[in-house]
Structures are given as structure tokens and as C-alpha cells.
Amino acid sequence: MRPSGRKLDQLRAVSIETNTSLHAEGSCLIRMGNTHVICTATIEDKTPPFLKNTGLGWVTAEYGMLPRATTSRTRREAAAGKQGGRTQEIQRLIGRALRAGIDRSALGERQIVIDCDVIQADGGTRCASITGGWVALRLAVNKLLKAGIITSDPLIDNVAAVSCGIYAGQPVLDLDYPEDSVAGTDGNFVLTGSRRLIEVQMSAEGSTFTRDQMASLLDLAEKGIAELVHTQNTAVG
């Protein structure tokens, strides 16, 4: 029995509320159980220097966690004067994931920055950030299309992410913190809406895992991603 009472293949309750920021070109609040993340998209009419005069656009991300997003206060990274390694790793993952679902030539020489701010954490913050980040990106791109700034939709496919792991000897979908903290195997799966793999992060936390178990986790991830993509599409209309 999972601590939450969920079935092995059951996601936490998921909701995506759009247009939560007055000023951002795209925004949403994604809730996956008790993990809540605000995602905003900002369009900039410039690209990083290494893309100048290439005709290619860029999507990048920044990630942060509020001090009381967790059970005890975490010091702001700004107060420490630098980002931690975990933060850098997560925001690079978000950027890589979202770029995999976009035609950068159709975007043109502009950059879209996705900011993901965790206001409450209960496991799976990077996955929620990617899933919500795509919604913010979709809304921002819609504004470019509506304004006629671009004529071809650069978004190739949905991008979403979900965690899976081995908890109490069983493959489970969408780990919350009580499961994640003791799971023998933990993995994050980033897929497109058409179930193409973008990135898989897996590790044996307390015990090794078999190839068959990995296949079981991928099956769970595909099921979860399909449900998340449906929620994304419903949110953006």
C-alpha cells in the first residue's frame, strides 16, 4: 500500500491553471499533489551570442525554490551569492527538455525564457516544472502566432515529465516525497506527447534494479505522460 493510498499506476491529482501572471507572455500554476510550481514564459527579441545570425531561436530555463517550499526553511540562493549544483542541474534539464519539442528555425532569432518557481514541494518538482513549463511556452508561442510575428507554429509536440520508482519492491508512478525519500530505485522520465524519449534519469538509491523493472517503469511513465499531455492540452484549450 502506498502512503497516499494511490494505486501503483495512479498519478497524484493534477491541475494546471493558466494566465496566473499579469505580465508574462505565458504563465501557469501547476499542481501535482502537494507539489505546486509557478511557470512563466518571457519572450526576448534576442538570442544568445552563439546563435547570432543563424536564424535559430532558443529556449532556456531558470529554476528556484522558495525558502518554505519544504518542511524546514531553505536559505535563498541569492543570499548565499550563488546557485547550488542541484538548481543548475534542474534548470539545464528543463531547458533541454523543452528545446526537444520545438523547431528553433520556425521560432526565429528570439529567446523564450521559462522561469519555474517552486512554492510548495512534495517530490517531483523538476517533473512538474517541465510539464508546466511547456504550458507556459505554448501560451507564449500562441501570442507570437496571433500577432503575426511568426507564421509557422514552432512547437513540434508536447513535452511532459513524470517520476517513477521502485517503492516497497513495487514499480510505482509519480512518487511523492514519502516514497521518493525511501525508494530503492528512482527515475525521472521526460517524453514527448507521441511517447518519444527525451531524457531518462535513473539511479539505484538503495538497491539495484533489473532490465525488466526498468521496462515496467517506462510503461508506467508512458501511461502517466499520456495523462499529463491530456491535462496540458485541456489547459491551453
Automatic annotation (TrEMBL):
Single Gene Ontology MF annotation: tRNA binding
Stored InterPro entries: ExoRNase_PH_dom1, ExoRNase_PH_dom2, ExoRNase_PH_dom2_sf, PNPase/RNase_PH_dom_sf, Ribosomal_Su5_D2-typ_SF, RNase_PH, RNase_PH_bac-type, RNase_PH_CS
Pfam families hit by this protein: RNase_PH, RNase_PH_C
Gene3D superfamilies for the chain: GHMP Kinase, N-terminal domain
Residues the entry annotates as binding phosphate: R86, G124, T125, R126
GO biological process: rRNA 3'-end processing; rRNA catabolic process; tRNA processing
Enzyme class: transferase
Keywords: Nucleotidyltransferase, RNA-binding, rRNA processing, Transferase, tRNA processing, tRNA-binding
Domain Exoribonuclease phosphorolytic: 10-140, 158-224
Superkingdom of this protein's organism: Bacteria
Catalytic activity entry: tRNA(n+1) + phosphate = tRNA(n) + a ribonucleoside 5'-diphosphate
EC nos: 2.7.7.56
Family to which this protein belongs: Belongs to the RNase PH family.
PANTHER family found in the cross-reference section: EXOSOME COMPLEX COMPONENT, EXOSOME COMPLEX COMPONENT RRP41
Functional note: Phosphorolytic 3'-5' exoribonuclease that plays an important role in tRNA 3'-end maturation. Removes nucleotide residues following the 3'-CCA terminus of tRNAs; can also add nucleotides to the ends of RNA molecules by using nucleoside diphosphates as substrates, but this may not be physiologically important. Probably plays a role in initiation of 16S rRNA degradation (leading to ribosome degradation) during starvation.
Quaternary structure and interacting proteins, as annotated: Homohexameric ring arranged as a trimer of dimers.
Protein name as annotated: Ribonuclease PH
